[in-house]
Design goal:
By secondary structure, this protein is an all-alpha fold. It folds into 2 domains: 194 residues, no CATH class; 175 residues, no CATH class. The protein has 17 helices and no strands. The chain is globular and about 65 Å long. One of its GO terms (cellular component) is endomembrane system.
Length: 382
Amino acid sequence: MATRSNIFDKIIFDSFQLTPESLGLYRILYALFLLIFGVPNFTWISRFPDVFYNPPLLSLHTFFSGFPSYWFLLLVSLGTCISTVLLLFGYKTRLTSILLALFIFTGKSFAYSFGKIDHDFLIWIIPLVMSFSNWGAAYSLDAKLKHQDRVVQNWPVVLLALILSFAMFSAGLPKLLGGWLDISTHAVRGHFLREFYVNERQDLLAPFFLNLNSALVWEFFDYAGVFLEVFFIFAIIRPNLFRFFVICAIFFHVFNYLMLNIAFSINIILYLLFVDWGMIISKLRKHRMLLSIERAINFRSLLIVGLLYTSFYLIYITATESVTFNVSPLRFVLEDLMNLDSLIFSGIVIFLGLIVAVLNLIHFVSKKKDFSDSTIPKYMHN
């Protein structure tokens, strides 16, 4: 029993060991990702009548008999925006992370009250879980003000790995039980044809796959998808194996994007938590970029960025009459300025994640070592 307990302790507390610098950089990346792609606007919800109100079981429906008012949703949206800016600069990081999660949970409770829960729920869990990791220990105002020590916790990263694994498993198990491995049928091809003809997803490489008639290739797609999703959960016992599965998942999303024209670009930010940050930090340090990041973290920058972004955000969501759903207003502006449609813009995010995945894979193969940070300080071993 003691041995079994030691094994679980090792997986929970010794896996995915990251330095304060690794977590600090990931915090900045996560906040930037939200500011550009994912700070949602919830005010559109108030435009719908209560007849559409069909909240999920775990939500705030107990306190509301219908959709809340515009002003309530505006406050929730602004709270999400301001919390994200504060998280970017790492000010009162733990409190800010929890508040950000609460604001998003509140808004999403109503956004999901139309009878559909989107795939992006994994992304909104990150700040709540990572608030316990001390990801404000480096590259933050808290670090400069010495509000937080340098001791970081590994178990929140393991918890997110478990959540991701169960999400993958819950997607793969129905496929496994539903006959995806039956060699007499081609499930992926059937799904592709439905998307091509019914939903008219006919861009990128879709025409090429339409003319692909190899039964062996289509059956390989069936098996590869099921095996990736089902066995994801077993990879968590080894950090290097789990990170390899994460890299495979990024390739999987690139494949879905090119063939099915479906872009789960928002999932990329969760995958990037598990990459080899030690390798990335060493390259950034070589080009003195870490020093620039350190200098940019100050109260003057916080005030300027906070005022500019919050003003833009408030003006946009109050001036537009369009239904913006759960996408950052800045994304709409960038798409217009760059003259890109939503599919291509999402593809840019996916391929940026692919570049990181390829760099990590090359680093792993060339160094022949675990994907964990190359140097783990003694203070991280509790």
